Amino acid sequence: MILYSFTNDEIPAFDPEFFVSVLPKLIQVEEKEIGEISIIFTDDTHLLSINQEYLNHDYFTDIITFDYSQGNYISGDLFISIERVIENAKQFEKELFNELCRVVFHGALHLCGYNDKTESEIVLMRSKEDFYIDNFVSRETK
Fold this sequence. Notes:
Blueprint: E1 2-6, H1 17-29, E2 33-42, H2 44-55, E3 63-67, E4 73-81, H3 82-91, H4 96-111, H5 119-136
Parallel strand pairs: 1-2, 2-4
Antiparallel strand pairs: 3-4
Helix pairs in contact: 1-4, 3-4, 4-5
């Protein structure tokens, strides 16, 4: 089950139900089973406080993933800073929805067991993100 919530009213208009329908497909392609995944759309300040408190990192980020998965049963919390996603979309000259999808898919891929610490892991993660964007996101939003 995919749940979502907003901690801030200043979120650009988009349909979070898209992720409710798409993430189970991503997880199925990765040959995993879906558990409970919460997507919490928030802002820089909130995500920075989580980063400081739980990870001892003192910097802004677009997503923090808390993985509660057990075996093939995928569960976790995805905290996403909409402010970072907006800035990244501008910086990389991407449509906002496309960048938001990349970040959500990135978090889901972490739950499926992918990492992004080494260069080879980053390359694999990016190729997976691109695959799911190519297959699940409308061509008009790219």
